[in-house]
Amino acid sequence: MLNEPVGVLVVGAGASGAAFAWSIADIGTSVLCLDQGPWMRQQDYPTNGLDWESRGMAEFSTSPNVRRLPADYPVNEQDSEISPLMFNAVGGSTILWAAHFPRLTPGDFRSKTEDGVGEDWPIDYETLEPYFSLNDRMMGVSGLSGDPAYPYHEPPLPPLPLGKTGNALAAGFEKLGWHWWPSDSAILSREYEGRAACINLGPCLTGCAQGAKASTDITYWPAAQRKGVQLRTGCRVREITVRADGMADGVLYYDAEGQLQEQKAEIMVLACNGIGTPRLLLNSKSRQHPDGLANSSGLVGKNLMFHPYTMVTGIFEQPLSGHGPVGCSLWSHEFYRTDRTRGFVRGYSFEAVRGFGPAQTAMWGMVHGLVPWGEDHHRSFARLYDHTATLLGITEDLAEETNTVTLDPVLTDANGIPAPKVTYRLSDNSRKMLAHAGERATEALKAAGAVQTVAMPLLREAGWHLMGTARMGRDPRTSVVNERGQAHDVKNLFIVDGSIFVSAGGVNPTSTIQALALYVADSMKTNLATLFDNA
Amino acid sequence: MTDSPAALNDLAFMDALLNLLIPPNASGSLPGAGTLGLSPGVATGLQADPLLGPMVGAGLQAIREAALAQHSEGLSGMSPEAGKRLVEAQNSANPFIMIGLLRYVYPAYYQHPQVLRGIGAPARPPFPEGFDVEATDAGLLEKLQARAVTLASPPTLLPDRRSP
After folding, report:
1. Which of A367, A389, A442, B20 is most buried, with most CB under 10 Å away?
2. What's the rounded Cα separation, in Å, for the pair A218 and A223?
3. CA pseudo-torsion sign B68, B72, B76, B82
4. How far from A372 is each of A367, A388, B99, B160, CA to CA, in Å?
C-alpha cells in the first residue's frame, strides 16, 4: 500500500529520533516518524506491582533476546563478549535507561590529536554546547553546576539527593582525594514542565511509573506532536528504497498487521541505534548500492563500540537505605585522561549505583556464592540486603573495524527481515583499563567503609551503548556520514543516532546522541536551500 | 524416563524442596518458601523458560525419583536432614540445576508481602508512595562548591589543550 508522501521521514522514535523530529518540524514540511514499537503506559510499568523485580527480568528485561516482545528483533550475539541491550517502543531505550546523563568531554572529540588513537571528530564540544543545553532543558536535567571535569554548564534543575549510599561513597572519594561530582541526571529533582518530581521509586531500568525520569515519549514527543509531527507505531522498516539516481526515496515497512506498506519521502533520517541503523542500511541493497546503502566506504556496521563495564560492589556494615534512582547519584572522572604509566590509553569514568532490591540482592548473592540455599540463607541475605553499594567503571572503547554489525545469514525477525549479528572482541587496551578500573573501584569502596568487595571484571549484560557503526567524518573513504550527519553517498539520507559517533568516550552517550540529533536538525534547517548540492 | 514436568507439577514435592532451599528462620518471622504457595508460579516460570526449563525440570525429576526410592512419600515424607543430603548429592552432580531453580524461587520469595515485612521492607509496590532518601551531606557540598568552576574559568580536571 502506498501512503501519502512526506517531506521528512524519521525511522526510530527513541532518544535521537524524537529530538530530531521535534526540531526539524520547524521547517514546516510534513514530518513522519515510524517506530516498530508501541506507546508505553506508565501504569503498566513494573513498579506498580509487588512483582516488579521479576518483571524486570522478563518482559522488561533490557535484552531483546530475553524479552522477545512483538516489537523486538533478535540479535545474534554469540560472537560478542558483550550482549547488546535496547528497548523498542516510542521512547526507545530511554524507557529502560538509568538516565545518568554525562556529556562527552571536549577531549573526547579529539582522541587522535591528544593520544594518537582513533580519529578526531569533524565537530567539537563547543559546536555541540548549545544543543547540549537545549537538550538538558527538553529532557529536564538535574545536576550541580561547576564540575571541574567539564566546561561550565548549568543544569536546569538542582541535583538529586545522594542518599546514604552516595554520601558514603563520596566520603570515600574525598578520603582518597579523587574527583567526584553529583551526576547530571535526566530525572526531575523538582516538578518541571508539567512532570512530577522523582519520588525515589528506585528501579529506573524498568520504566518510571512516576514520569520523573525523562524518556522521549514524555519529553520530546508531546512537543513534537504539538508541532504537527506524525508518529506511526508498530511499523517495522524492511528497507530504504532508492531512485534511479541512487538517492533515497522512502521505505518499505510492515505495519502492525504485517502488511507491507510503502512510504515515500524527500528526506530520510535514521535513528535506529548503532545496531538497528547499520542493519537497515545493509538490508537496503540495490543495483545502485550493491553493498548496502551509504556503504561505498565499506564501513557500515564496522567500528562497533560499546562501553565495556566493570562492576565492583561493596558490602557495608551499616544499612545504606539504598533507595533512589538506581544509576544516578555521583560520577568520577579521576581516571578519565590518558596516563601511559597505567599501561593503556584513554580512560574511564565511575558511576555510582544505589542498592539492589530484595530479589536482586538474593540473585546477586547467589551468583557470587554469598547467599546459599539452606539453613544459612537468611543470615547471609540479611548481611547483604540494604548493605551494598556499587561502582561501575565505564571504559572507553576504541574503534576497531573487526567489531561489527553484519546481517545474520539465517536469523530473521518476525517479518522475515534478516537480523543483525554482532561480532565483538575486547581489545587488550580495554582489558587493561577494566582491570585498572576494578582495582580503583575496590579502593574507593574500601575507603568508603566497605568491609568486603565483590568484583565482576566484565559485565556481559551491559551493551547499552551502541556506537560507531556509521561514523562521521569529512573523508568519504573513511566515514559514512559527513560532519552534518549526511550520508556521503546519499545526500538526502541522514543519520542521527549513536552510529555516527567517531569515538566513544568513557561516559554514557545519550546526552551527546541527542545533542548531535539537534545539531544535525539545526544544520539541515540552516542549509536547507543547498542541502543536496553536489548530489 | 518420566517427563520432566511431573516433578514440577508435584506440589507436595515442590513445596518440600522449596522449604529445603529457604527454610523458615529461627524466629519465625520469615516463612519457609514451600509454605507460601510459590510452587505453581515457579513451575510456570520454568516451563516457559526454553533455556533453563528443560535442564531444571530433568534435574528435579531425578531428585524426585531418588526421593521416592528412599521414602514412599518422596521428599515430603523425608526428614529435613535426609532431604538436604539427597538434594546436595544431586546438586554436586550438576549445580546448575539449583541455580536455575533459584532463578525463579528467589524472586518469588522476595516479592511475597510476608517476606518483605520480615526483612523490614514495606510490603507494597514502589509506586505510588516511593521512598525517602537522605539529603546530600552539606559538608560534602561545601567542598564541591569550593572546587567548582565558574562560567569564566576553564575546567581544571580536563583542561582544554588547545588553549594557549
Report:
1. A389
2. 9
3. negative
4. 9, 17, 10, 51
Going by the DSSP 8-state scheme, the letter that residue A313 receives in this structure is E
Lowest mean pLDDT among A24-28, A31-35, B91-95: B91-95
Distance CA(A504)–CA(A396), nearest Å, equals 6
Q: Write out the three cell numbers for B87.
A: 538434594
Mean predicted confidence (pLDDT) in A447-453 = 98
Q: Cβ contact (<8 Å) for B20 and A106?
A: no
| pLDDT, mean of residues A419-430 | 98
Rounded to whole angstroms, how far apart are CA atoms B132 and A177? 29
**Spatial contact of A200 and A323, defined as CB atoms under 8 Å apart:** yes
Instruction: Give ipTM to 2 decimals.
Output: 0.92
Query: Which amino acid is located at B92 in the chain?
Result: S
Q: What angle do CA B48, B112, A366 make, to 5 degrees?
A: 65
Q: Which of residues 119-158 of B touch A (CB under 8 A)?
A: 119-121, 123-137, 140-141, 143-145, 147-158
Q: Do B134 and A105 touch (CB under 8 A)?
A: no
Q: Name residue, grid cell 551494598.
A: A388
Q: How far apart are CA A62 and CA A419, in angstroms?
A: 18
Scanning A337-496, the segments in alpha helix (DSSP H) are 358-367, 377-384, 428-447
A362 in contact with B, Cβ within 8 Å:
yes
CB contact under 8 Å between A106 and B132, yes or no, is no
Sign of the alpha-carbon dihedral angle for A207, A232, A14, A398: positive
The phi and psi torsions of A140 (rounded to 5 degrees) equal: 85, 85
Min distance A344 CA to chain B CA atoms (Å) = 18
- Cell (9 digits) for A330: 555521583
Task: Kindly report the average pLDDT of chain A as a whole number.
Answer: 97
Q: Among candidates A513, A503, A472, A515, which has minimal Cα distance to A395? A: A503
Q: What are the distances in angstroms from CA B31 to CA A55, A76, B28, B119? A: 23, 42, 6, 11
Query: A406 is written with which cell numbers?
Result: 553484519
Q: Does the beta carbon of A167 lie under 8 angstroms from any beta carbon of chain B?
A: yes
Give the integer Cα–Cα distance in Å for A413 and A113.
42
Degrees to nearest 5, angle at CA B119 with B115 and B120 = 115
Q: What are phi and psi of A386, to 5 degrees?
A: 65, 20
Give the range among A279-288, A314-323, A478-487 with minimum mean pLDDT. A314-323
> Which residues 279-308 of A are in CB contact (within 8 Å) with B?
none
Between positions 57 and 96 of B, the ones with CB within 8 A of A are 84
Distance between CA atoms of A345 and A331, rounded to whole angstroms?
Answer: 20
Whose cell is 571536549? That residue is A106
Q: Name chain A contacts of B152, Cβ cutoff 8 Å.
A: 152
Scanning B10-39 for CB atoms below 8 A from A yields 20-23, 25, 30
pLDDT per residue as tens digits for the range B77-98: 999 999 999 999 988 888 889 9
Main-chain phi, psi angles of B51, to 5 degrees: -85, -55
CA separation for the pair A148, A150 (Å, rounded): 5
* Whether pTM exceeds 0.80: yes
> Is A534 or B121 the better-scoring residue by pLDDT?
B121
User: In chain A, which residues have their Cβ closer than 8 Å to the Cβ of B113?
Assistant: 50
Q: Can you spell out the DSSP letters for B9-56? A: H-HHHHHHHHHHHSPPPTTSSS--GGGTT-HHHHHHHHHT-TTHHHHH
Q: What is the pLDDT of residue B162?
A: 37
pLDDT digits (tens, 9 = 90+) for A81-109: 999 999 999 999 999 999 999 999 999 99
Q: For residue A324, name the pLDDT band (cuts at 50, 70, 90).
A: confident
